[in-house]
Amino acid sequence: MASESYDLVIIGSGPGGYVGAVRAGQLGLKTAIVEKDPTFGGTCLNVGCIPSKALLDSSEHYAMAQHDFEKHGIDISGIKLNLDNMMARKDKIVKDLTGGVAFLFKKNKVTPYVGKGRVLSQNQVEVTAADGSKQILETKNIMLATGSVVNELPSVPYDGKQIISSTEALGLPRVPKHLIVIGGGVIGLELGSVWLRLGAKVTVLEYFDRLCPTMDAQLTKRMETVLGKQGMEFLLQVKVLGAKTGKDGVTITYEDQKDKSQKTIEGDVVLVATGRKPFSEGLGLEELGIEKDKRGFVLVNEHLQTKYPNVYAIGDLIPGPMLAHKAEEEGVAVAETIAGHAGHVNYETVPSVVYTWPELASVGQTEEQLKERGVQYKSGTFMFAPNGRAKAMGSTDGMVKVLADANTDRLLGVHILGPRASDMIAEAVVAMEFGGSAEDLARTFHAHPTLSEVLREAALAVDKRARQS
Questions:
Q1: Can you give the pTM of this predicted structure?
Q2: Looking at the chain, which terminus has fewer C-beta neighbours within 10 angstroms, N or C?
Q3: Phi, psi of 89 (to 5 degrees)
Q4: In angstroms, rounded to a whole number, what is the distance separating the alpha carbons of residues 347 and 363?
Q5: Annotated active-site positions, please?
Q6: Are strands 124-128 and 249-256 parallel, antiparallel or unpaired?
Q7: Structural domains in the chain, sorted by start
Q8: Are 165 and 148 within 8 A, CB to CB?
């Protein structure tokens, strides 16, 4: 049991862990990172954000070649899907990026350990390698960054073939005839979009009365309409009761919550996309008395510290949005705090994105939240339909909504359903980070013709000054 000593040991090499490690290395902290899997990058790089976006882009190109190129004067015949090549491209992107993380560790003098990490005390981490050998790392500080795992519905247990999680949905060997998606959130809609574009019939079952229920209601209802035009089908306000598998497929039994009737639906593959839960098992937290809530989230203070001031937790392991960029900023904040800087995360400006087409992006509060809190606000909206760049692209579905304080005009929330919304939302994040107003967005130059002009028009519309409609 050879022992090494560090300023910081991080358990988990996902976006929060590896970015936190890089920042710690930059700040001169002797840092080690422990990863249980053979490749770095966590869920995001290996079986989450990155491979799903690779498939979304590939499937988007395939769908455009089938349905949209002709409008652009490009005639193509005999289009074929080569799913093996599409998957190989996705796998190469994952390999390149996970290899890039290893390079970052070397560049910033971060020592990686491959094995399962366990906290023995507030100053010791045990690493168990695949062969069972153990090593103890002495450390002044510990960062827990083990992320999350998929939720499993007890009534619809995974079998990895007919009833699958998002991990298996990223590598199906063939296009399903009928993909049933349980869960109308980010993961379900994104992976549903991939297989819809590649030729599957896709039906989404959602417990609530609308998709992505934490996001702006007006925009999610509009997204439902747009995705419906693409061919995606929705059964809302339904409660899944069970699943029966057979050689010909899967039969899902569900309850229609509107009239309490029981119904069934049949498909050949069922994707359970009902969210994720923190991965905190086997870390030794219970033995140390580190508190968790009923859902398994580790409880921390405003400095991301557990009951031990030198043991921190970040990312999906703690309450808050389960987003890679949120975890990254928390990892950086912890590293900076340990190094004596003012580490801080502004949770009011964490953007969220659904990478369907069109994309849905959001930052700040929704109208529903403002009404619930009794906040007086003004709203401005503008459609993509009259925008010159959107017309040139042939992507005019969607709209932008800007919410501002009724008295001060300070931005409270910005919500975008439209092409490249994931990139456009960054402007709103910066404006809100600096306490900007709708007037600030309205009076800022936006190049013409660009999609971002729709954001400006929505900001102008807050005071009923939109100029392009």
A1: 0.96
A2: N
A3: -60, -45
A4: 10
A5: 448
A6: unpaired
A7: 3-150+277-345 (3.50.50.60), 163-274 (3.50.50.60), 349-461 (3.30.390.30)
A8: no
